[in-house]
Amino acid sequence: MAACGLDFGTSNTTLGLTGAGGLALARLEGEAVTIPSAIFFPPAGDEAIGRAAMTAYVEGHPGRLMRSLKSVLGSSLLDETTPVGRRRLSFRAVIARYLGAVKARAEEQTGDALTRVVHGRPVHFVDGDPDGDRRAEEALAGIAREVGFRDVSFQYEPIAAALDYERGLAREEVALIADIGGGTSDFSVVRLSPERHRAVERAGDILANDGVRIGGTDFDRTLSVGEVMPLLGLGSPMRRPGLDVPSSYYHDLATWSQINRLYDGRTLRELRSLRRDVARPDLIDRLAAVIEAERGHTLAMEVEDAKIALSEVDRIGLPLGWVEPGLTAEIGRPELARHTADLARRIGACIARCLREAGVAPGGIDALFLTGGSTRLAPVRAAILAAAPEARVVEGDTFGSVGLGLTVEAARRYG
């Protein structure tokens, strides 16, 4: 009856194994220990997960890609059904299919059934809604049991990252743990030391936890709305003075979890009707081309790639020739900073609130431990560093720290 730590993320997933050989992340796709939180349903046959799912979609195989599965937890969407292939499944069932496949791959590697799990969770699944937060955790626990876990418990993701970081410490310190994932930004102020690491009960070392439902997919969305969607007609005028084209199509197209809702046939009928009343029908034609080809996820992936690239370069051209020959969106760091300024401000405000709750001044933080892919984004990084400017910056395993920390916790709880 083996135990594991499971970090089911909005963008990526890891699963850590406990055993006589120590703690390690399972290889979930080839040699990779991370696997994208994505699933692809073909019209018939078995679904694909991870990179294989993304590849099937990008190569144009018929079927449906679903990403950002975690974002429906705590929302009314969880139990709604959606068409996949020739059937309909609830989003709950889709998550179960994905997590069941991840679990099976880890079991194949370890040769043992995984029955005990410490599941990672954000500090808040849903901002300002304790009932929604409770429902989200209960739903995730129920799904874990559906896929074969007998003992299910939870740990906050930033605390898990702290446990991974603590393994390498030589002295006591107060750390601010920043875990910026695909869907949430989570923070903890924790007292850590080599001696404390051996203790089972650590509640007294956790000085404060806080979080906000902002993550990498939100930065994708705001960048897409600001720089790409205007090329498809967002903000363009109707023929009737004083009116713009309805914006809901564009916001859905820019939001990972909403894209598939545009493929119901009704949207294209509405766009054909709308086209007669707009001042720029050519822009509506571009929008319709994306939806008719069901390439919304392609667009989202290219925006995500551009956002990541802007961590390394000052400006990038996002090629949209597949929408219309010669079409390109030119995006630079100033545009990224402008469109995401409010998100970065809210992240900074959450950190400040967490420090106040902990009763620790910015100068009292010894180390800033950064984990999660979105800590690489310049606006996010600036907001975190400004919160504790004198602290030592420690780069964690971008995608693996939380999973390893959850595995540390699994060994303690179930070992």
TrEMBL record:
<dbReference type="InterPro" id="IPR013126">
    <property type="entry name" value="Hsp_70_fam"/>
</dbReference>
<dbReference type="Pfam" id="PF00012">
    <property type="entry name" value="HSP70"/>
</dbReference>
<dbReference type="GO" id="GO:0140662">
    <property type="term" value="F:ATP-dependent protein folding chaperone"/>
</dbReference>
<keyword id="KW-0547">Nucleotide-binding</keyword>
<protein>
    <submittedName>
        <fullName>Heat-shock protein</fullName>
    </submittedName>
</protein>
<dbReference type="InterPro" id="IPR043129">
    <property type="entry name" value="ATPase_NBD"/>
</dbReference>
<dbReference type="GO" id="GO:0005524">
    <property type="term" value="F:ATP binding"/>
</dbReference>
<dbReference type="InterPro" id="IPR042054">
    <property type="entry name" value="YegD-like"/>
</dbReference>
<keyword id="KW-0067">ATP-binding</keyword>
